[in-house]
Write a structure and sequence with these properties.
With 382 residues, the protein is α+β, with helices and mostly antiparallel strands. Among the domains are: 28-154, no CATH class; 284-382, no CATH class. Helices cover 31% and strands 42% of the residues. It has 10 helices and 17 strands. It has helices spanning 3-25, 30-44, 197-201, 250-258, 263-270, 287-299, 303-318, 324-339, 356-365, 370-374; strands at residues 49-51, 54-57, 61-71, 76-86, 89-90, 96-110, 113-127, 143-152, 157-171, 174-188, 206-218, 223-233, 237-246, 274-284, 343-348, 354-355, 376-380. The chain has a 17-stranded antiparallel β-sheet that branches. A hairpin with a 3-residue loop joins strand 12 (223-233) and strand 13. The longest helix is centred in the N-terminal third of the chain and has 23 residues, at 3-25.
């Protein structure tokens, strides 16, 4: 090759390098691309405007500071002190995936009320592009944890210590296990609130509530379990519900979704679902005594007289069932509870799963046999 040809080649290469190097250096970082998608997708989803005062950090972890979001017909605003993205990156469909998203100091307020959250953490989250938001499994997460929550208005503000949601065993975009928990929710009993009059009469100044709901679904067997759904109120009591259902297959779920606007079709499909077991437990923590006291005061009779009346009336009402064995179970349980009001538990444990269609048929043809078919039982203080 001639020397001048080599020189021209080297000069061209140097020129290309000089021209292209700034372009490579100025290529959009993952951090900036995620921020761009976060803003664009929020607006496409209906947010009017979203801005931040500052950004710090790198591709691995970065924080938006002083975030303001404007949305709604009245241009309501939400302010957020910080949003931190950990391990965030764009997805192929124009969404965002992140190992963790942390929100601090969220505050939403308008004339109708407000919401504030001290901290919020979402782990292993997938945020879809708006065009794909309605697709099954488009939005996914492993857990959501929030703390120092307050919501309400000028008349009533309700604080919540913490809230958590977990989801796992995803299949076809659906989590087959999940749990929801609320701790430390305190509802004030206002003297000037007519809706709270009955609660106030029971001597409560506030209701401190914890709640937990857990669900699991085995698509292969069609078993759907509502595991110990509970609501516990301090100095009131607790209600705990557990149900195990069979026949809830993916095909049945799809058909139920398709029949959501046709109640008759949905009822026909639900009739094929079976009840495997169920239990309802009520624990008393002074609610019964307070209600007895308030009723006795209102009627002007001794509490002991009300208990005696209940002991007589319950067997009379139960006689309508026309199932002596079950009537005795219920009557004995109620009598024991009236003497020592600790707990009442009702259970359903059939020897084999009972389809809803069968329950409907028995209830119509021979209702007195229904407790036997379902293996129903009632017990007190156990």
């Amino acid at each position: 090759m001639k020397r001048h040809s080599v020189s021209r080649l080297l000069a061209s290469a140097a020129l290309c390098a000089f021209v292209l190097t700034p372009a490579v250096a100025e290529a959009q970082s993952v951090r900036d691309k995620v921020i761009e998608l976060f803003t664009a997708n929020a607006k496409a989803a209906g947010i009017k405007d979203i801005t931040q005062e500052d950004v710090s950090g790198d591709d691995a972890k970065f924080t938006l500071q002083g975030v303001t979001i404007t949305a709604g017909p009245k241009d309501q605003t939400a302010t957020i002190e910080e949003i931190t993205f950990v391990g965030a990156k764009p997805t192929d469909d124009g969404g965002i995936s992140a190992d963790e998203i942390d929100v601090a100091g969220l505050d939403v307020a308008d004339a109708e009320g407000g919401l504030s959250i001290g901290t919020l953490t979402i782990k292993n989250v997938l945020l879809p592009a708006p065009a794909n938001a309605q697709k099954l499994g488009a939005f996914k997460f492993d857990s959501v944890d929030a703390a120092k929550i307050e919501f309400g208005d000028e008349k009533l503000t309700v604080p919540v210590e913490s809230l958590s949601i977990t989801a796992s065993d995803y299949a076809d975009g659906i989590p087959h296990k999940g749990k929801f928990e609320v701790k430390g929710m305190v509802v004030p009993v206002k003297d000037d609130d007519p809706k709270m009059a009955d609660v106030k009469d029971l001597g409560y100044k506030e209701l401190a509530i914890d709640a937990a709901f857990a669900t699991s679904w085995d698509a292969a067997t069609g078993k759907l379990v509502f595991d110990k759904w509970s609501i516990v109120a301090k100095d009131v009591g607790a209600v705990t519900l557990s149900i195990s259902l069979g026949g809830v297959t993916p095909d049945v779920v799809k058909q139920l979704q398709a029949a959501k606007d046709d109640p008759n079709a949905a009822m026909a499909l639900a009739a094929n679902i079976s009840i495997e077991s169920a239990s309802l437990r009520i624990d008393n923590s002074s609610l019964f005594e307070r209600a007895l006291e308030a009723t006795a005061k209102r009627q002007g009779v001794p509490k002991e007289q009300l208990v005696q009346q209940a002991g007589v009336m319950v067997p009379m009402m139960l006689s309508a069932i026309q199932n002596p064995e079950f009537e005795k179970k219920v009557s004995d349980a109620v009598a024991a509870f009236l003497v020592s009001p600790k707990s009442l538990t009702a259970t359903v444990a059939p020897t084999a799963p009972v389809p809803v269609a069968q329950i409907i048929g028995v209830a119509g043809a021979a209702p007195q046999t229904l407790p036997t078919v379902l293996g129903a039982d009632v017990a007190a203080n156990k």
